[in-house]
Amino acid sequence: MDKASIYQKINEILVEEFEVDEKVISPEASLKESLDLDSLDYVDLVVIIESNFGVKLVETDFDGVITFQDFYNIVEQKMTVKN
């Protein structure tokens, strides 16, 4: 799966599962502020990413995540390591 496909799939998940307006999703936008997720939503996000991409995210993966691009990068890195 290439970068564009990863980004597109993540965006689709956010729109479908978390009812996010796709207009607020951009690489430089703040993930936390744009999504307004609580701690249970983050757990849901981790489970959904794992089931869709086959990679496991842990709490420390989110330490440096500020923007959507940061989140895309984490998922992409995990997929690269997996493959």
Write a short abstract of this structure.
By secondary structure, this protein is mostly helical.
SSE order and pairing:
Layout: H1 3-18, H2 31-35, H3 39-53, H4 68-82
Protein name: Acyl carrier protein
GO molecular function, one term: acyl carrier activity
Organism: Sphingobacterium phlebotomi
Give an overview in words.
Residues 4-79 form the Carrier domain. It is found in: Cytoplasm. Belongs to the acyl carrier protein (ACP) family. The protein has 83 residues and is mainly α. The chain has a single domain, classed as ACP-like (Non-ribosomal Peptide Synthetase Peptidyl Carrier Protein, Chain A, Orthogonal Bundle). The protein is 61% helix and 0% strand. The chain contains four helices and no strands.
* Assembly form of the protein: single chain
CATH topology: the name is Non-ribosomal Peptide Synthetase Peptidyl Carrier Protein, Chain A
Percent helix among the residues? Answer: 55-70%
- Strand runs, count: 0
In what range is the share of β-strand residues? under 5%
Order of helices and strands: HHHH
Count of helices?
Answer: 4
**Which CATH class?**
Mainly Alpha
The rounded distance between the terminal residues' Cα atoms is: 10 Å
Q: Determine the mean pLDDT.
A: 92
CATH architecture field: Orthogonal Bundle
Shape: globular
Helix/strand-derived class? mainly alpha
Total count of domains: 1
Low-confidence stretches: none
The whole-angstrom Rg is 12 Å
Main beta sheet strand tally, sense and closure = none
CATH superfamily: ACP-like
Features:
acyl carrier activity; 61% helix; ACP; PP-bd_ACP; 83 residues; mainly alpha; globular; Non-ribosomal Peptide Synthetase Peptidyl Carrier Protein, Chain A
